[in-house]
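Table S7 (text form). Paired inputs.
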Amino acid sequence: MSPVSGVLATPPPDTPVGVAPLPRSSMAVAAFSTVVEWYDFTLYLFMTAVMSRVFFGTGPSSVLTTLAVFALAYVMRPLGALAFAHLGDRFGRRRVLLASMAWMTAAMLATALLPTRDQIGPTAGALLLLLRCVMGFSVGGEYTGVMTYLVEGAPPARRGLVASLASAASEIGALLAVGAAAVTTASMSRPALDTWGWRIPFLFGALLAAGTLAARATMRESPAFEQIRQVGAPPSSPLRRTLRLHRPALYRTFAISALGSITYYVGITYVPTYLTTTGGFSEGDALWLSTIASAAVITITPLAGMLADRVGRRPSLLLFGALALALPVAMFALMNNAHHTRALAGAVTLALVAGGVSAVGASATPEQFPVTGRLSGLAVGTVATTVFGGLTPYLSQTLIDATGWSLAPGAMVALVALTTLPVLWHLPETAPNRQTERVLHRL
């Protein structure tokens, strides 16, 4: 494994070679099943204003409390990632993908059926927190499991594109979420919305998850994992082995995940809350602006994946990292004047940057690790997602409330980009076609 400071990387020594790609049906089910994960988590943020009234009342701290529930639930994500990673590195990727989706289906259905604060008092908020923690735990194994499955099953020269399609599918989930929130909010009165209407988007998510679980039952196991299992038993303690042998890869994965998380959760999912609490927009207008921004991400994501295959993971991440440093403060300024055109430009630009980082990171992070400890390595990287993803919407709103500076969220994104760019500069290139070209050039 190349050190952090190296530019040229060699494949991990225990990565199987000559493994046949997965059938397209299995790849398609895996790629597009990320719709469910991102539908649920982004739906909760897009419905923050409604959920705060339904579960925590109309007090001045209800929005912050709702965001705090989201942040606390995200603490469960690395715990779930570690648990599912051990399962996946020991017994197979398919088992992880089935288990995580089963948990998500149950949690979403239970959320849709929850009693409200008006019905059972503060206990409603406690139950919501419990179910969000279950969801956070299950999501811990979801995205890393899907990306690992796709990277191991895709043709090597097309890993960036294939993994980015799963990232694009997750954006479809976000688009469905913001669209469902917008339609539900706009189509009924506030009393009806608070009484029963808020349940509709969550019920739709539960049905979507149940259908995805049924489709996943048809998937084949990762061929790379099957080859490892045929050669010999997978390590009994994959996490311990990864921590001992692949620390530089863990640092790199943490940096990529940190940048991808803060650009996504501040630059996309927090935006509707920002537009309503700080930008002067109504809930409906904010959700429709965010719907357009989410649609724009779906366009950039496969393009970024193809770019990563063509020019490499490192140059692509450096490009989007530089944009994450230069643009966020100005884009939040555009969204802070209740002017629809300027706010749309700011929201779309932030979404495109976030989508680009996520698309390239989808292939770059699994490629940092060998097959035998890949899920365990990615699980450690989810700590960055917890800190820079789940906590940042709450921190953004807290900083604005405490300082009165409406551009604080943009400054947060730029600061993380500034600290991760040096790591990206020294990132070893893992795109198979770019590795081959570099070796031939040196010869």
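Next pair, protein 2 of 2.
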Amino acid sequence: MIGLLMVTLQPHAHLEGTLLPRGFFLVLGLIYLAALAMDRLAAHWRVPGAAAVLLLGLALPTELLTRAHPLGPVQVETLHRVSLALLIFYAGLKTDLRRIRGMTAVGLRLGSAGALITLAITGLALLLLAPLMPGGLPPAAAALAVCCLGATDSGALEDLLKALRHAVSGRLSHLLQFEVAVSTLVTLLLFGLVAGVLQVPGHGAHDALQGALAQRLPEQLGAVGLHLLAGAVAGLIIGALAPRLIDALVRSDPQLLLVAVALAFVAYGLGQWLGGGGLVAVFVAGVLLSNGRYRVNRFEQQALGRVMHPFNTAAEVTVLLLLGLLVQPAVLLTVLPLGLLVAIVLPLARLLAVWALLPAARFSWPERLVVAGCGVRAAVPLALMVALSEELPHLRGIPVELAEPLAAQLLALMFVVVLSDLLLQTVVMRRQLEAIAQR
């Protein structure tokens, strides 16, 4: 495959009448086929497919691909925003409120307070371990990087459950899916809040973080409130209209797919237009669509989730491949010790959060261990890392000349953390469930 890439993607060899390099579609198709092959191999090894796709992205010859067709800021921004919107929409679709009755409050606590506790512990550990980062790690960059790790991931959770052969009970799996949706939303809002508070008008400013909190926190809290309001309004509007549109327009599953994707894009665009709440809007719309009532019974949550699953898979694979392509192997080696340490701290922090928030009267200790072990992270945190790279030059205490190398280090760090946890948590969970079954 590497040889084929070298032959087909030569600089200045374009398809006739296009700006695309010769062999572009051939190589793109081969990359996605290779990703599917890696996913199948991962299933055979009983590990999450996200880990295998990440490794594939890292193994691809990035310099050759980008020399033939550079990945500029516009392409990266488009890929990551579209993929993130589809991932969040799918998380909303997977939120079946009827199946988590009686556990809604627990899921909300776990997805909000649980995420915040996990991030606080991990952030403190990252600051203490910052000397291991070559060149050091500015506090503003550390704070924003930790925010990316708050969201658990719907696709990675499904992969993990498949790798465990669905040994997790239905009660816990529905709770985990609800937590995915809540934690994703909380993480997005927290990321925006922290980025806004730490942002400065000029490059390379060295104002104290305490000053930033005092000056910009009230303003940014208002901005987050506006995003929430705009997203909720847009999502409610689309969610209210969606059942009527589906009943009136849809006659088959392919049409249901087209309408669902169109509604996701409309919700995102309306949320952005009303006040920047596009991602909140697609989540709210997804929840309302999945829990709506339709004249045709098969066009309910199961059908919507089924037809959108391929799009979610495509978005997840795209984000994983994109990060693998952006990570520089030489930089990866320099952050490997720090990444492995953070990858150990992160699940321990989640375990403490789960132990503190799940009542012992309702959840046995094996169940709490299962919930703690299923806090896997993959595509959503990695998509946020792409956004972090764009925010770094505008953060306090980061000179503009250091922004690019620091972004490369943080991308590599996140790669190590996510990959390590995907593999570690799968092994731990498998042994844990086997031990519970033997009791």
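The chain has a mean pLDDT of 81.
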